[in-house]
């Protein structure tokens, strides 16, 4: 079994690595990363295959004020990527016989007012109904007792096990369960249960006062597209839902070691990477990961967003390829998702289509203006200003579209989704063909009269 596994890895390796040891897709990956501005907040990218770091790069500034560049060792707050570690810690407790996923939350937190009828599994897969509709002063420290009290007062969005809604609060409650069972703080429990056994040193928790070597400064962006400091907040708030930090290489290596380490890790990872179900409905989440597909390749992925930072990972377990992208902006010019999925597609030899910018006539561009029906009341709205088309979905942010060859519109600095305008015999735009994630198939969005 082990011999065959190693042979598979060695065979796959030759498809992506040249004789020099450099991936043959590296130049294309470099072009993607170069779309990140060099003079502002930036990104670090790491690709791990078969337990080896085969691609690592960074672009942009760790500190705009000091003009210090990012490096492979730069650390970032990773936001909701924390949930993968939290889920793995809970699963490790189950493997050790210290809890069961179908335990009622009330078994471990009997005083928690929303615990009735909720199981640990429902916290993990976001079917608990625990609400995120609570607030606390962002800049004030928050401990577990206070956090649970606030979550409990918010009540539930729906009865447990009847619906699905992503819940940060649910993972904060999981952190409290970790503390109850281990007698440690949630982050110390995650280090003891997951990070230390897997040899991951450069992912961890640091409170507001701790000076962390290599920590990149976080930034946000104004409506005028100017980098600014994010709002002041305490990292104690997100807890086990989003308070870890780390470097890109360690995030990618964590995924490999979760899936490929000694037992019980492979069994734990398989459970985490399996889509949860609600009756006959397959949910868009497993246990701390989001199972998905990248151009026909089975993957798990997760995003992370917290004030000043963005993060994304893609892991293909069948190919043992992990890609991690960490950014020090919560409104980056190029999204962590776009970078991670495009580079993962290169590493997996299922690349996205690329389009060359082209000059369209002013009349053709102006004809795009209008509203297009996505589904129900949801709309894509295209506006043209100074000859440049901009698109937004409902009340979301505007994104610039780039006219390209083949009568295709692409999102600037994105490279995943693209749009084909549909014309009638008079040349008027009657609909849009929206190609999500570069797929050949499309969604027809009819123009509102």
Which CATH first-tier class of the largest domain would you pick? Alpha Beta
- The portion of residues assigned to helices is 25-40%
CATH superfamily of the largest domain: DD-peptidase/beta-lactamase superfamily
**Oligomer type:** single chain
| Measured distance between first and last alpha carbons | 62 Å
- Number of contiguous helices: 12
Domain unit count: 2
Gyration radius, rounded: 23 Å
Instruction: Report the β-strand fraction as a percent range.
Output: 15-25%
Structural classification: alpha+beta
Q: What is the CATH T-level topology of the largest domain?
A: Beta-lactamase
Mean pLDDT: 93
Uncertain regions spanning at least 5 consecutive residues: 1-20
User: How many beta strands in the DSSP annotation?
Assistant: 23
The dominant shape is: globular
| CATH-level-2 architecture of the largest domain | 3-Layer(aba) Sandwich
* Spatial order of strands in the largest sheet: 16-17-18-19-20-21-22-23
